[in-house]
Amino acid sequence: MTVGSWEAFVLIVRRELVLSFRRPEQLLQPLVFFLIVTTLFPLGLSLQLSLLRDISPGVLWTAALLSSLLSLDALFKSDADDGTLEQLSLSGQSLTLIVVAKTCAHWLVSGAALVVVSPIVATALGIPVAAFATMMLSLALGTVTLSWLGAIGAGLTIGLRRGNVLLSLIVLPLATPLLIFGAAATERAISGSSAVGAMYFLASVCVFTCTLAPLAATAALRITLE
Amino acid sequence: MWTWFYKLASPPHVFRVAAAFVPWLLGVAALALGYGLIDGLAIAPLDYQQGDAFRMIYVHVPSAILSLTVYTVMAAASAVALIWRIKVGHAVAAASAPIGASFTLAALVTGSLWGRPMWGTYWAWDPRLTSELILLFLYVGVMSLRSAFEDPARGDRAAALLAVVGVVNVPIVHFSVVWWNSLHQGATVVRLGAPKMPGSMLWPLLAMWLGFMLFYGAVLCMRLQGELLNRERQALWVREAIKS
Questions:
Q1: Cross-chain Cβ contact B141/A169 below 8 Å
Q2: What are the residues facing B47 on neighbouring strands?
Q3: Chain A partners of B169 at a C-beta cutoff of 8 Å?
């Protein structure tokens, strides 16, 4: 029985979502990590709220970056270990389609969830409500890009024993522009000035990675799987 | 039709060519570096603002340019190796990575030594400095990814893909002083219109740049020979090359 591309895409996304909701702790751990890291800063800075407000965009974005690294390991690894990924790649569907579906599902359970809980963290850090829309949009654009960069990194480090450290070493340098512009956009929104420039940059980087990263991630999987 | 191309890029041929290039590259590099160092460090006039400290550019600027050039060479060699499956490309990339990382480190160190008297600080979180630091991390990432695989062929291809992906950082480093308000000096030599630098200062700089390029070429050829011998150690031509 042959399945159309769109149908296969929906099936893979649904499978990924079902799997992650069956293991809710895997879903929640990065989010809890996100909350914990951001609460460490106020504790370490002895509750100087004015200082906290100044550094809050950086804290928020750094924590988001680190917590999404945590979930990247699960993107391909468990499926590669038990042979599911190989079966999928032999299914007759293009490997790129599988990669796109898996990364979309990964973003839904990691990036989108991060965006949803970010207002809680932002309130704790003293970010005004007026800045929430910009902050959440910038985080949404940033986490999509991160998921894609992570897909390349995870694809390259699948078979490695200490792949996790290497994954951070590969992904973090590439993700630094996101941190710079994401934090800049949030900071501008907090101070009340226009964040349009930084948002355009984030959006363009997002479009850029969405177009080219699937090819790179597919190539990475081809190298490490075969 | 493309067989000549593959013959040209065959390891024994590249090994011989590299061996033949080394003395020439080293000789001309020594001439260029000698002239550049003497003229740059002793003869070129003082900068009216920076005094003698400006002479740091004769090491700093060529290292910084080379850090980008070497990365571009590495990425191009990786792309060639991935697309046409030419093994020598991986060897060139593997041989280039440590050289490029060294140039990047040299640019960062000389820059911060210059920054201390001029900017009053060793380090500033400035776009150009930060992106150059990211370049160093990329080099380290490519090198460690290559060595992380037990199967060297797989490590080669994974590192090659990462090198190609990381090439997006090259234009960011290069244009960082144009795009952002940077503490770092803007483009002075390579720009539309005449260089913003008098000839007495410019010539030694160009000589140093040429010298660094040739020096890179020479070190690349030497390291490439080592890489090829190590990679092809099972091959017949290696035994013959060692004997002779």
A1: yes
A2: B51
A3: 173-174
Residue B215 has pLDDT above 90, yes or no: yes
**Which CATH class for the B17-243 domain?**
mainly alpha
Closest-CA residue of A relative to B150 is A160
Map tokens 């460690």 to a residue.
B144
Contact A176 B158 (CB under 8 A): no
Domain count, chain A: 1
Nearest Cβ partner of B140 from A162, A169, A224? A169
d(CA A5, CA A11): 10
B84 token code pair? 């046409």
ipTM: 0.83
Between CA A137 and CA B161 the distance in angstroms is 31
Average pLDDT in the B20-47 region?
86
Among B47, B23, B81, B58, smallest CA distance to B204 is for: B58
Under DSSP, is residue A34 helix (H, G, I), strand (E, B) or coil? helix
Contact B165 A174 (CB under 8 A): yes
How many CB pairs below 8 Å do chains A and B form together? 55
Q: Can you say whether the dihedral through the CA atoms of B116, B117, B118, B119 is positive or negative?
A: positive
Q: Helix, strand or coil for residue B219?
A: helix
Contacts of B141 in chain A (CB under 8 A): 166, 169-170, 173
State the Cα–Cα distance between residues A149 and A176, nearest whole angstrom. Answer: 11
The predicted-structure confidence for A162-179, as pLDDT tens digits, reads as follows: 778 888 888 888 888 888
Question: Model's pTM, two decimal places?
Answer: 0.86
Contact residues of B toward A, CB < 8 A = 82, 130, 134, 137-138, 140-141, 144-145, 148-149, 154, 157-158, 161-162, 164-166, 168-169, 172
Contacts of A75 (CB under 8 A, 6+ apart): A102, A103, A106, A150, A151, A154
CA distance B158 to chain A (A): 6
A176 touches chain B (CB under 8 A): yes
Q: Give contacts of A172 with chain B, Cβ < 8 Å.
A: 137
- Given a contact cutoff of 8 angstroms between Cβ atoms, the answer to whether B195 and A203 are in contact is no
What is the extent of the structural domain holding A94? 5-225
Cα–Cα distance measured from residue A54 to residue A34, given in angstroms and rounded to the nearest whole number: 19
Write the pLDDT tens digit of every residue in A96-148: 999 999 999 999 988 898 999 999 888 888 888 888 888 999 999 999 999 99
